[in-house]
Design goal:
Blueprint: H1 5-10, E1 36-37, E2 42-43, E3 48-49, E4 82-98, E5 101-102, E6 107-120, E7 122-124, E8 127-129, E9 132-144, E10 151-155, E11 159-161, E12 164-169, E13 174-183, E14 195-196, E15 203-215, E16 218-229, E17 241-243, E18 246-256, E19 261-271, E20 275-277, E21 280-282, E22 286-296, E23 302-315, E24 317-331
Parallel strand pairs: 3-14
Antiparallel strand pairs: 1-2, 4-5, 4-6, 4-24, 6-9, 7-8, 9-10, 9-11, 11-13, 12-13, 13-15, 15-16, 16-18, 17-20, 18-19, 19-22, 20-21, 22-23, 23-24
């Protein structure tokens, strides 16, 4: 498949969010649990922040920085190929869950994310590598009882990444690689606001993933990643915050109706790591979610992916009721 026009439009290494996870993932706004009075479960948050790019496709959907995969992300294009991608996501959250309990009230939070991504494949000593940059722009708005959170919009945390393929066998449609994602603290952030697009910290995500054809028309994609978080700045609302290592595991299936159309579905589970702020350790946000969708090749070296998803289970965070992701790709 690699080297054909189909490979060009289908290929694309993993991504974030704003996310996802971006573009993740994929990134859901978060609130340190130390901001809750345990006696009455009523939040008195100082800050909510959009976890930049948990995946390009889900950037606004995760509390930290797991990287959600689009099925086919680890099917590489030929060296010399450049990909231009745009991700669009709309997500609606209608529950706030703490300690496995739903907080009372109309707790809603909506997000809209756009991510621009540029990828270029190169050959380094016989190994395919794909340096890339992801630039997210996002908007957040509290709704219902959470309208008091206000709104925020602006540039998110820019991501630099470079997938490296350790297994690249197009003759058997078998691929495996590792990808480091470096999140830069470039996002819009003010400690006077409750909602923020930026996170005011560095992050490093390391992902290992691959895909294999398990039947002539069926492909299995799977991956796992860990995220190491830097500390926030000293002016972070509520004081400097640190976070333990987070992780995510995910898998999806693709069924090829033709060389131009596939159906896809996937599931993931993430634990974003415990928070420490003002010497108080808060429980980690956990998230289990699914998505279904389709990819089509409208014409030439282009691809359109449309997916719908929602959270199956969330603890210590907002729960997504609906999430729509669109990804546009052009290869040249």
């Amino acid at each position: 498949m690699n080297g054909t026009p189909f490979a060009l439009w289908m290929s694309m290494e993993p991504i974030l969010l704003l996310a996802g996870r971006f573009l993740c993932p994929q990134p859901e706004p978060f609130m340190p649990l130390s901001s809750f009075r345990r006696a009455d479960r009523f939040p008195r948050a100082r800050i909510l922040s959009l976890a930049a790019l948990a995946s390009p496709a889900l950037l606004a959907s995760t509390p930290a920085a797991a990287v959600d995969l689009d099925a086919g992300d680890y099917d590489p294009a030929k060296p010399g190929t450049t990909l231009a991608l745009v991700y669009l996501q709309h997500a609606e959250r209608d529950e706030w869950r703490i300690d496995d309990e739903k907080l009372p009230g109309d707790n809603r939070l909506n997000s809209d994310v756009t991510i621009v991504r540029v990828v270029h494949y190169v050959d380094i000593g016989g190994v395919t590598v794909a340096p890339q940059v992801l630039v997210p722009v996002a908007g957040l708005r509290g709704r219902g009882d959470r309208a008091t959170l206000g709104k925020a919009s602006g540039l998110g945390d820019i991501i630099l990444a470079a997938p490296i393929w350790l297994v690249n066998k197009p003759e058997s449609n078998t691929y495996f690689g590792i990808t480091p994602y470096l999140y830069l603290p470039t996002g819009d952030y003010k400690n006077s606001r409750t909602l923020n697009v930026g996170e005011d910290r560095w992050k490093l995500n390391l992902q290992a993933a691959g895909s294999v054809r398990i039947a002539p028309r069926v492909a299995l994609d799977a991956g796992a990643d860990i995220t190491v978080y830097g500390k926030t700045g000293n002016d972070y609302a509520g004081g400097q915050m640190s976070q333990k290592v987070g992780y995510q595991v995910q898998s999806s299936l693709r069924y090829f109706l033709s060389s131009a159309v596939d159906l896809r579905a996937g599931i993931s589970h993430a634990d974003f790591g415990k928070w420490t702020q003002a010497s108080i350790i808060s429980a980690a946000t956990t998230q289990t979610k699914f998505w279904v969708g389709s990819a089509i090749k409208p014409f030439g070296p282009t691809q359109l992916i449309l997916t719908y998803g929602r959270d199956l289970d969330v603890n210590n965070g907002f729960k997504e009721a609906n999430r729509i992701n669109v990804r546009l790709l052009y290869a040249f």
